[in-house]
Structures are given as structure tokens and as C-alpha cells.
Amino acid sequence: MTTVEPPANFPRAHLAHLESIGLVVLVRLQPELEYLFRHALVHAAAYSSLVKADRRRLHQAAGEALERLAPGGAPAAATLPILAHHFAEAGDQARALRYATLAGQAAAAGYANAEAIHHFTRAIDLARAPGGAPEPVAALYLQRGRVYELSAQDAAALANYAELEAWAVAGGHRRALLAALNARATIYVRPSAAANPALGRALAEQALGLARELGDPAGEARALWNLLQQASAQGQIGLALAHGDQALALTRAHDLRELQAYVLTDLVKVLFQAEQGERAIAVLAEAAGLWRELGTLNMLADNLSTASMISAMAGRYPAALAHSAEAAQIAHQIGNLWNQAYALYMVGTIHFEHGEFDAALAVGARAEQLARQAGFAEGENQALFDQAMIYGYLGDLPRALALVEQGRARLIELGGVASVWAPLELIVPMLYLWNSRPAAAQAAFALCQPCQDPAELARQFVLTQAVVAQIRVRLALRAGDAAAALTQAEAGAAALRRSNVHLFLPDTILLAAQAQRAAGDLAAAQVTLAAARAEALEIGSRRAGWEIEAERARLAAQRGDLAEAQAAHAAARATLDDLFAQLADPGLQAVFRRRSIVRAVLLARPDSYPEIQHDPPDA
Known about the structure:
- This protein is mainly α.
- Among the domains are: about 5-50, no CATH class; about 55-135.
- It contains 33 helices and 3 strands.
- The protein has helices at about 10-20, 40-50, 50-70, 80-90, 95-110, 115-130, 135-150, 155-170, 175-190, 195-215, 215-235, 235-255, 255-275, 275-295, 295-315, 315-335, 335-345, 345-355, 355-375, 375-395, 395-415, 420-435, 440-445, 450, 455-460, 460-480, 480-500, 505-520, 520-540, 540-560, 560-580, 585-595, 595-605, and strands at about 5, 25-30, 35.
- A hairpin with a 5-residue loop joins strand 2 (about 25-30) and strand 3 (about 35).
- It is elongated.
């Protein structure tokens, strides 16, 4: 029922009659008469009976009364849409626009995205109506577009910015045009289902020229930030750094703190690729401080997820999980699917390192689902990579290859973005090697473009390059070329150390030890293997640890140290028993037990230690 206060001169007899026939209900007598309509339809009928001028006067009076009642002159968030409605109906466009804008901003601040889009749309309509105010139009489009982006509605965001661009061109609003160009470029240059790096670069370069022509430092910095992202995605690290440093200088000179935080955020990955790990960590911390200061929760979650990824790569798994948990909590709070997916980016890999295979697969499946819903192509690729890697490692080659095929289908569906999907492509040779199919591995490696093209490989992250190095080492060992294997393994380990990456470093050092043993240098192999063992213990990689112990058993047996061989074998067997317990699926446990190296450890006897191989030939 709707509450009404009758005009002071409204006849009491008429009110009594309305009450007697059940149309209204008396609520209170003091301090003023107040009635309720019994039904919204009665209220609607009464409202429609008013002439237009009376309606406008009533809406104006209602709006002004609500303004006077607001404590301190600041209406509550819940009142803002009501004020916008009353003043719009009253024909007071200026105040209607003000309150619709404030309602949109309040909804966006609370991550009520659907409501925010509704209010911003209303404000845009008011601003663009005859007699409206053109000045806030661009800002309103940008605010609505940002909410679309946070809701994983990139197509709607692009349509929104295209509409702004058309309005700007038609009206000769050049600064609004600059804003529209930059906003579109941002969507096209980032890794998502809407990615179009070539178009993103063209728009950013057009925006950069226009910004410099207009003398707009904020627009110039935004265009440079977009070019930083585009160059980074293409592996042009030097160019990305140059764009980033220029953008950073502009944001600092003109106190553009939010844009500064965005630039810092995207510089982190570039700095790691440029092997400037210490500066990357400092930049990440600076960005985190700005996001907390600004209260921008979606970007704080993004920053924490990046911190989780960096910690995981550095082998600091407890810190990585803590950062991920905080990022996930914030992402759930604000309902941001992209952030929820990114928070899980490396969590599956950490579980894999710990030997928690079921947990790793569950996280991978959840991350894939969230990334797909959010249009986060890179996140979807990483989730598929993780799952394919785990299934392949466990010996379920068909399921692993099916996940790769799923990734290929998505690449076609998304219309390209080949560099984003390259890591999933190059895992195929490793899947075959883990499952003792060297001929298939060699063939897959020959067909893998990022594996064979140095320029394409240079565009990939250091972990991707490390996987390629490991494949080359294993293939060289298969071919009996111990010298080439050792060169590749040592170069791969050095590259990981330069970038402060310890994830998969134990495996690379282990391969170097195997190459030394294959060359007959058992003393050097023993020293190198001890380094691999220490590295695995330091970062808590039980997955790599049992394989290192198996190799230690074989090397000790070759050296004639049966006691050490038995101790190492016992350690490998005990860890494997624990890992089997992490697999609830009997089928997966069975195929894992059938992997050659696993079977060799399970069946080993004192006189068979020399036959324990890290990567045995085809069964």
C-alpha cells in the first residue's frame, strides 16, 4: 500500500467516503493526516487522473521535501533513485541528472552492477535529451562501460564505447572521442575473449596522437598504458617497458594516482620477463598500496592474485595461497567473475607440487568454469593447461590430450589469440614423454610453433620457456646426446634463477644430473642431484621430491653405495604411497601406478636399482 498525505484543504467528508468504500485506510491523525491506498492500482488510477501540470508540481514538491529531510543535505543511497525519479517527472532535468548519476555511482561502489547500469543509462538519456547537459555525457558513458567490464560484459562495454565515439564525432567533442578510443583499446589489448591486439594497437596509437595534439596528459598516459599491454602480450618486452616508463612518468608528474596504479600493475609481468625481479616486486607493492588507498577492490583483488602468482613461481607456496585466499574473498564480495578466476590462477599448480592431485584437478575445473564465464581467455588456457598437465603426469594420456583439443577448439571459437594459447600447445610433447612415447613427443615438438620459432618463444613467459627447455633435454637424453642435454638443462636452470622462479626448478636441475650421469660423470651428477633435492625440500615439492629420490637410488647403486640406494628408494616409495592416497579415483590411481618410473620404484629390488629411470623407454 502507498502512503499519502491529503492536501490541507481536501474536504474531510470526501476522505471519509473514500475510507468507507475501502479505497484508503487512515494511518494517523497527528501531526498530520496520513492515509494508505489499499492497492497500487488505486494509487495508479488516482495518479493518472491528475493533469500533467499537477503531476509535475507534486513530483517537484516530493523531491524537494526529500532533499530537506536528508541529514546534512546528503540523501541516503536508497533515496537517490527516488529523487531522480521525482525530479525527472517534474521536468527538473538538472537535478534528475545529478541524482541519477549519484545513484549509479552508489550502486557501482557497492558492486550492484545491474542497478548501476540502469541508473547510468537513465543519466545518459537525461544528459543527451533536448535541454540536457552535454558536459557529463562522456564521464557517464565511461562509468557505465566500466561497470559492464566488471560484469564480464565486454561486448556490451564495446557497444557502449562505440556509442560514445559516435556521439563525440557527431558533436565535435574531441576529448570525449579520445576517451572512447582509449576505452575501446583497453578491452582489445588485454587477454580476453574480445582480444584483438592489432585493432587495440591501432586505436591506442590514434588516441596517443590525439592526446598529444590536445595536450591531455591523462589521455596520453592512458594510450601509453594500452600500448604497454599490447606490446607485453606480443612479447615485445623492451617496447613494453619503454611505454610503461613513459606512462608512469606522466602519471607521477600530474598526480594521476588511479592510472598510475594501473600502469604499475601491468609493469609487473613485463619486469619479470625482463629479468628485473626485484623492481617487479617493489612495483607490485607500490600498486597494492595505491589500490588500498583508493579503495578499488577489483584491482586490489587483481593485485593480490598477481602477488599469489609471483609467490607461487618463487616457490613461496604458503604466501601464494594466502594472497589467493584474500583475492578470492574480495572477488566473491564484489561479484567479479574475472577476479574469482584469476585468484585461482596458480592454486592448482601449488596443489600439484604438493602432490595433492584431487585438489589440484578440482581447482583446475573450477578455474576453467569461472574464466570461461568471465571471458578470461588466458585464465581459461591456464586452467586447461593445469588439468592436462596433471592428467598427463598421472598417466591418463587420453584425457590430457582431450583437454588440449578442447583448448584448440576454443582458440578457433575465439577467432585467434594464438599467443595466449601457445602454452597449452607446447605441453603436448611433455605429455608424450611422461607416458613413454618419445617418437610421438618428437613429432609433436616438431609441429609446435612456439617450440620451434625463437621469436614466438621469446613472447612467452619464463615458465613456458622452461617447459620447452625441459622437453629439449628429455629428447636429447633419448637420443643419447648427453652433452646437448646438459647444455640445455643448465641454460634452463640459469634462466629460472635469473627470474627468481623456483617452480619446476628442481625438475630442471634433476635433468642436468641425469645428463651428467649419462655422460659418465657420476661425481658431478651426485653434487647436482643434491642441489635438486635441496631445492625440492626448500619449496615443498613432493611431486618432484620422489622422482629425485628415485634418481638418487639409481645413481648411488651405480656408484656402489647400496646403503644410500636403499635409503633413497625407501624415501621415494614412502612419498609415492602418500601420493596414491591423494587420488580418490581408482582409475587414476591405477594408470599412475602403471607409469614406467612409478612401476620401477614399486617393483625395485636391491639388485635392480640401476634400472630405476626417470624417463624410461617405451614399455
